[in-house]
Design a protein that fits this description.
There is one protein chain. This protein has about 120 residues and is mainly alpha-helical. The relative contact order is 0.09. About 95% of the residues lie in helices and about 0% in strands.
Length: about 120
């Protein structure tokens, strides 16, 4: 019974971890899209400032462009780490399934052995 409860709890944790990974994936995708849009706007602002000869606007646009690119790099790193964590979760789930199969086999063997043992008086 304790083993069954433990397996159930592990399954619940795995499901929650998967949900968290999916949530983070969606968040990173949305953030990445927004940062890409911000980068394009910063590039356009830089070009407009360059054409107008406005050094102050060029500087502001360059700073925004740099920040966007750094943030995009951070998102990429986070996505890579999340992918590695997801692989770890998958490996953990496979290991858990193997353990469950082994436990089921052991229980089946124990039941079979228990059934095969006859009462010595009945045999006599």
């Amino acid at each position: 019974q304790l083993e069954a409860e433990q397996q159930q709890l592990v399954s619940i944790v795995n499901e929650r971890d998967k949900s968290a990974v999916d949530l983070h994936k969606n968040t990173y995708e949305q953030t990445q899209y927004q940062l890409q849009q911000q980068t394009e706007l910063a590039k356009q602002a830089y070009l407009d400032a360059y054409d107008a000869g406005d050094k102050e606007k060029m500087l502001n646009a360059q700073q925004l462009l740099n920040k966007s690119q750094v943030d995009l790099n951070n998102i990429e790193q986070n996505k890579t780490q999340l992918a590695q964590y997801e692989k770890t979760l998958e490996a953990r789930e496979v290991k858990q399934q193997q353990q469950q199969q082994q436990q089921a086999q052991v229980q089946t063997q124990e039941q079979t052995q228990a059934q095969e043992q006859y009462d010595p008086k009945a045999v006599a």
